[in-house]
Design a protein that fits this description.
about 290 residues; alpha+beta; putative xylanase like fold; about 30% helix; globular
Amino acid sequence: MVALAWSLVGFGAEPAAPPTSLPGVGTAPEDLRRVAAEVRDEPLADRVGAISAVLLGRPYVNDPMGEGAGHDPDPLARYDQFDCLTFAEEVYSFALAADPVDAARIRDAMRYGAGPIDYAHRRHFMELQWIPGNVADGWLRVTTAEYGDTVTFRKTVDAATWRGWSARKDFAMTDEELPLGEMVLDVLPLDEALRVADTIRPGSLILTVRTDRAGVPLWTTHVSLLVPKEGGGTVLRHATKIGNGGTKDHDFAWYLEHLKTYRWPVAGIAVMEPVEQGPRMAAMAR
């Protein structure tokens, strides 16, 4: 993944027309809905693991989802292919839902907040929109500092930042629609992350954080799920370009070591957890 801004992965790619005749586009597959219903009373981390397992083996595709119309006419929902963030959003939406029928509402809330479901209101930028928005809305909480010694990244993004960023042209938004303000993120350096890897709770979202680049309004370039492993421990599950790509599992420690090989150096990871929406039935009914 080059960068992530809902997907900044593959930014500049032309959106594909929505292939609505394909299975898994628009409507969640029956096996996904069935498993989500079967595990609805299990602990949240177990729900994340079981639901994400149903979606293993799908291809990795840059920016596979859109609004179904407008600038990005890709489908609003699809289950036959993913990038890293759309995979995490779909898994968490089913894991947090009181009933599978509620998952679409949660996914849209994570992706767009309370705004209209359109390109301009999508949470494109992780540090400026997606992370703070989902924390403020109560879907996720940041837990990085609970695991070890962190380094705090800070950066102010203003109009001059956007004017100077070469990838600005890839976003069909007016200058007024672009987010401004301070980016703040606590980061576990890679060696510290390796030291505490076995203590990070299953169900967590693992953010891959690059070193700061002047004039670039992002640090996070990939997200993964840490899920329970049969027999104990955890495994990293994500939609990735690694190898032949796709939704797959990797050993977490191996992945952290692998990050040391990236040309744009990886500073470390950040960690978030989904927040149990309990009692979920009442929350969804409201």
